[in-house]
Amino acid sequence: MKQFTIYIATLTLGLINTVYSQDLHHKIDSIRNLHNVPEVAYAIVTKDEILTVDITGFHKFAEQTTATAANIKDYFHLGSNSKAITGFIAANLVEQGKLSWQTTFFDLFPELKDSSNTAYHKATLQDYLSHRSKVHAFTSGTERLTLPIFKGNKQEQRQAFAKHVLTMDPIETQDGYTYSNAGYSIAATMLEKVSQKSWEELAKEILTKKLGISFVIGWPNRNLENQPWGHAMQYDVLESVPPTYNYALTLIEPAGDLSMNIENYIKYIQLNLQGLSGQSNVLSAKTYDYIFNYKERYAIGWNTLKNDTISVYDHAGSDGTFFTYTQIDGITNTAYIIMANSGTANAQQAVMKIVQAMKEANK
């Protein structure tokens, strides 16, 4: 798909915040237009406050009308930002005692051990979620084209996929890190085994029923009416990708196939910001510390960058048609969120410029 913010003081503060928001909106809209990004949603949030949230643009690049104008309720594909949510679901089950971070795949599926590559015998849940299991990436369509056809429902297909991946030769790297969508599918299969529920059911139970966070699986325009279309380059032309396009992420849904609107995604991010500040909510503060700081470079669904002067957690996600980026400043405990309905290199450059504009505005 990669082709394709005494009374007088209060009033003054309100005016300042309004000007701040308008100025930032103008900057972001200019960046969006410059880089041919049809639609962008963005937010700056702390653990208990939304400093700014807005949206600009249109659902489709070639159809900029009132009917297709951006709406704050619009859904965007999260791509690999879904990984942190699968890690969040795993953490919930770990706290319930259903399994531990050290549980191996073969603790739960001993019957598959003899047919697997011995390199994976000791790989644990935390290894799969932190990209330290040595399994293949499956980040490209080319890799998925080489797979056999797996039958059954989604849960059965993922289990068969896990079985297949664990027979392959391991990916060896100097530091043991190798980014992998397949690792998240294997982890999801482990969660399904101990809960006796599908990953989809777990997501609905924990996110929606427990936390009031709505989502859909797959592209917004495949699930809901009047939603943003994803965009990709085809023959050097930016094209809106129709919902009927033959593209499915069934095997790696837990790694990157959730969609949310920015209001719902903010709810999720604020839970994490509370946890990072030492507050327990649906998860304990101790568990949040583990999720973000278990490993250097990449912990549980989050890239980590920490030294004497900075503390940053971030993640980008794209299936080639959308691009979502979240950055958490661990020192100020502030999150910057950007969602775009284009996955092009131009769109990714725009998102990085928007992040910088948001950070400068929030100084």
From TrEMBL:
Pfam families: Beta-lactamase (PF00144). Residues 35-350 form the Beta-lactamase-related domain. One of its GO terms (cellular component) is membrane. Keywords: Hydrolase, Membrane. GO terms for molecular function: hydrolase activity. Signal peptide: none annotated. The keyword Chloroplast does not apply. This is Serine hydrolase. Gene3D superfamilies: DD-peptidase/beta-lactamase superfamily. The keyword Cell cycle does not apply. It is found in: Membrane.
